[in-house]
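Continuing from the previous page...

OK, I double-checked the sequence for Amino acid ABC transporter substrate-binding protein against my notes and this is the correct one:
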Amino acid sequence: MKKIGSVAAAAAVALSMSAQAQAGTLDSVKERGFLQCGVSTGLPGFSTPDDKGNWQGLDVDVCRAVAAAALGDASKVKYIPLNAKERFTALQSGEVDMLSRNTTWTITRDNSLGLNFAGVNYYDGQGFMVSNKLGVSSALELDGATFCIQAGTTTELNLADYFRLNNMTYQPVVFDTSDQTVQGFEAGRCDVLTSDQSQLYALRIKLADPSSASVLPEVISKEPLGPVVRQGDDVWFNLVRWSLFAQINAEEMGLTAANIDEMSNGDDPNVKRFVGKEGDFGTAMGVPADWAYQIVKQVGNYGEMFERNVGTGSPLGIARGLNALWSKGGLQYAPPLR
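Thanks. Re-ran it with the corrected sequence; updated structure tokens here:
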């Protein structure tokens, strides 16, 4: 009976995904009048509600950029908080139109779940946060330590690989949410909290005394994080992907929320194409010609989005590093709008 139930559940998800693809996610979003975007349950700098319930963060701004392109209004988003274990099912079933919640792009997720990653909005890697009382300065000193880990993430497998390769042992303490992991760490249930380094910096500021913990220098994995959509709907996939590419291209061209109107009146053909005054790159994606202009005017370019949410001037204080433009030593590179 369990096998029959599992088959039926899988069939139901497949039918739902097929119906979504046939109807067209963009058409559904337009008819509904707002984007349903799956985000984390609360991760400072990436997706978290403020004291008034307004969502903010790097991943939230990715949702806002897609809403600006699809609907002409970055505010037309319903944020649906999802933990790591439920995020993919929510997308597969059509509960959300896209995921934007610090999700790592892997071959399994790309080929076995019926999903597509539309790009990378943050290049990351797994690290370790320890209490300063532990007195360690390297992950190689953690043999026998107890680790707080979030379930349903790549973190668990990476940790097992790293300790096996280095002939060390550890004890896992597994939690459902990132908030629970930091609470467990602060309560002393584990010696170490391991996750993506960006998440460690975000979780550290939730501690009663952030200065009591440090992030070790080792990075043990590649964690390219980015927005995710269902397979089978190329129009929606292209719009989500090019919304991110538009922000990266805008930073490269020096287009910002503050100057895009002024620069639109200049003679640069690249800018004219970008804002929709020359050519028409929106029709094939089902949106107006000024879709990229709306993204930058309402949300900003990639650099603006990065700096206000997680950059050196934010509470997280993260340097651009790998997330700098390719022309400045980083990995952020987007195909041209042409």
